[in-house]
Design a protein that fits this description.
Radius of gyration: 15 Å
Distance between the termini: 10 Å
Shape: flat
Strand content: under 5%
Largest sheet: none
Oligomer: single chain
Helix content: over 70%
Length: 106
């Protein structure tokens, strides 16, 4: 169940990163509120997952999900550049997440 919580925490990290961008420096109310609610939810789920997952594993996977997810949202929703180097970087992060999961033994 810890991995489910961690995945949920990672998804909420993507939400808060995106809505933080949409808040325009916390000058827009609704995106700002969504950012803070998603942050609290993300941190809460991360902390629950850390009850049984090692710190290094949980934090690395949480950060990686957020990083790759924000990268995908940036390209798909915000029209950010798609370059071979950026794709390679995201692929390396994703492969690191897979290796972290495989090496965790749980």
């Amino acid at each position: 169940m810890a991995w489910v919580y961690l995945f949920g925490a990672g998804l909420l990290e993507i939400v808060w990163a995106f809505t933080m961008k949409q808040s325009e420096g916390f000058t827009r109310l609704v995106p700002t509120l969504v950012t803070f609610v998603a942050m609290i939810g993300s941190f809460a789920l991360l902390s629950v997952s850390m009850r049984s997952l090692p710190l290094g594993t949980a934090y690395t996977v949480w950060t990686g999900i957020g990083a790759v997810g924000a990268f995908v949202i940036g390209i798909g929703v915000l029209g950010e550049a798609v370059t071979p180097m950026r794709l390679l970087a995201a692929a390396l992060i994703l492969s690191g997440l897979i290796l972290m999961k495989l090496s965790s033994g749980s």
